[in-house]
């Protein structure tokens, strides 16, 4: 079990994070009132406005997830710390993970809010713990690993093309090879690799175990390429 920092901060983390995002009409946010108006543009003021009316939903979400985490991991009161809500976001910190939820105005539609729920496990084993799947059903749409040093995307492409591994159904990339996209056998989503990160992306929420299995395949490809 990983532990929080000496200053009471979140666990150091394992370098992986999972998330799922939902789009909601701003008028359907729990903090929206009859005297409120739906923004027709996106500005710094409207972003603050949406964050403000989104805080009621953030509070409710933190309460809901806290109950699930206590049940899933048998947490005591002292083991679960809440932060916020503040400016449309809030977090829960426990020895197993850090959970963050935010509500913001979408960039492409000023009348729509984006709720993002993100988990950073304290240890890789948490990803396959049944408690994680229980607390965050139906699951997540992404697993990301950010690299400490820039990855050599060209080396990844070359390694996949040279080995032609059976777990890779397809490989696509632009002429400058600045990024690449893979399709994996047995996984309905896609994998995007850039110099900064590798992301496993599912079209709909899936249990964390499905994303972990896909990540294991991607990790093996990165190791063969000597990068990441």
What keyword list fits this structure?
ten-stranded antiparallel beta sheet, 10 strands, disordered N terminus, 2 domains, 228 residues, Alpha-D-Glucose-1,6-Bisphosphate, Chain A, domain 4, alpha+beta, 29% helix
Number of helices: 4
Strand content: 25-35%
Run of helices and strands? EHEEEEHEHEEEEH
Question: What is the overall shape?
Answer: globular
Going across the biggest sheet, name each strand in turn: 2-3-4-5-1-6-10-9-8-7
Structural class: alpha+beta
Uncertain regions spanning at least 5 consecutive residues: 1-11
Largest sheet: 10 strands, antiparallel
User: Over all CA atoms, what is the radius of gyration?
Assistant: 19 Å
Estimate percent helicity: 25-40%
Write a concise synopsis of the structure shown.
With 228 residues, the protein is of the alpha+beta class. The chain has helices at 44-73, 130-135, 153-163, 208-225; strands at residues 16-25, 81-86, 89-93, 97-105, 112-121, 140-146, 168-172, 179-184, 190-194, 197-206.
